[in-house]
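Methods — Computational structure assignment.
A single polypeptide chain was analysed. Its primary sequence is given first, followed by the predicted tertiary structure written as structure tokens.
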Amino acid sequence: MQLSIVSTLNESKYNQEEIIKKFSAVCYFLKPLDYDGVELSLLEPEKIDVKQINEIKDSYELEIPALGTGNTFIRFGYSLGHIDESIRRKAIERVEKYVEFAREVQSKVIIGLIRGRYTFESSQKKEKINIKSSLKECCRLAENNNVELLFEPINRFEIDSYNTISESVELIKEIGSNNLRLLVDSYHIYLEEDPGFIWDYLEEIAHYVSHIHLADCTRRAPGTGHFDFRTFLNIFKNAGYNGFASIETIMKPSFEEVARESSEYLRSIL
């Protein structure tokens, strides 16, 4: 199993030189800590010089396993489930930008918060219909670019649909695209799943999983709470999973401290 951590590049705020400098500094910092990759949470990937990004990651022998798209909803308000078709279209257009960037850096694209939340004018039922329709278009984009989409179940406090793994697996089956896979997140599992049932269920659906997010029950670094990471990760190891487990936490007291603590703890149990 390979280890990565989420980082931002602030590409909407900084110029190209600053973006590249930051990415280089992150890679330089992570490599000695035994990381295999750096997951990027982006807002406008089209503003990034992909050639330079590839040169830097390759020089450090690191991968970019996945791209986070949640800022599209947080910052722009675009979502795949929105009642307004024009806003859904903008969300799909943004996904296309992520897919194009992912194609060039050989990454995957996460479908998480970009699903959005429904308004009083809509409903969960309508939202799910819209998400399915939008997701089918996104899958076609992914298929045309040979990029994998990662569907992430997210807890009910952050999003209104597909909160559980079982719902998400059923959606993946219904869509029926080889380019749509599952992302599981330990924090959302802690909040949403039945603790007496989830371990056996994860064994059943492990073959759908193509990426993993790690955060403890406090949403801090793994090992700072009481989530059973050893059991959780062993399920996937025993299933033959050899992809990435990526740290996605509140970066406090600092990104550097979270990266150090997480690597030390996880390498001791992997």
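Note: Residues 2-269 form a domain with the TIM Barrel fold (CATH 3.20.20.150).
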